[in-house]
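Quick one, T. Sequence first:
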Amino acid sequence: MYARTQNDLEVGNIVSRKEVAELSGVSEATVSRVLNAVGPIKEDTRRRVLDAANQLGYVPSALARNFARSKSGHLGVVMPYVPKAHLFSAYFFSEMLSGIGNKARDSGLDLLLLFRKPGERIDYSSLFRQQRIDTCIILGARDDHDEEEALKRLQEEGRPFCVMNHHFEGQSFCEVDADHVEGSRAAVSHLIEQGYKRIAFLNGPDIYSNSTERLKGYRNALQEAGIEYDHDLLLEGNYSRRSGLEASATIADKLNDIDAVFAANDRMALGVMQGLRERGLAADRFPAFVGYDDSDAAEMAVPPLSSVRVPFYEMGELAASKLIPDSLNLIPALELTGRDSIRELLSTELIIRASSIRP
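Structure tokens:
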């Protein structure tokens, strides 16, 4: 490995970034990221680069430093494409965006909302290269090979990003989510404790990890109670009220075989209740209901809807805080530490109301 002599330094020969890379055993790109505090870097790598730069007396040019540190001032939030859904009226999104926005505002960043188009594959890396955003939070991610590869590219490039409310199995992405397995288990266990055994489950599409986690919690509760899982009691919606309304037809036809309904969100639960009413069923003849999210509408439902409370606002704040740089050293709070996972799960809470209490 080439190394400069003390004489070289004393006569003022210019040290190159390549030499710093050679001495520290990393790439020139890594040297640039460390010296300009761009992207997450392992601590031992950062220390090697800084020690090499100090030993060689390397000083990056002001032009290069300013270019590398150029900022848009935007925290990007990627919103999903959900057919026929009004995203901003959804409690799920409004609460998370409020939490993200609160933390961003306190840090002097603006939110840039980026909306997917039907079938679009977003090139996340280009958003950073074009300096449209400094950091990125992805909402509504799904199990998709192209999506996973795009996020892996971001990670390889050292771009700060966080996935909210979705889990990519086998990856070490920064993820913030709630414990949906336990939330669902608690909801179904409550129904079983009330004496209900034929519990229909209206879930979302299995392309979302939340859906598979809710199903796991549902099955765990049945297994703990010694109740056999019946696939015929599993229904699928798309988390919209309309899909709950559509599912109400199936539930109405099976009322003799169903004594309770667990829905994967409040919107679908309320849609089912609306559909049953439209079919002439009075509230006192409803099966028991438990929803999920504990939205504002749950308490106002007739009867008031039991629901699993999810701390969406706190999740938004936490995700944003992981991406906002430390004001003292300009190094993002999110660091790749070599751990198997940097996923954080927040606790849920079952809120019991009249809809699930046996008369």
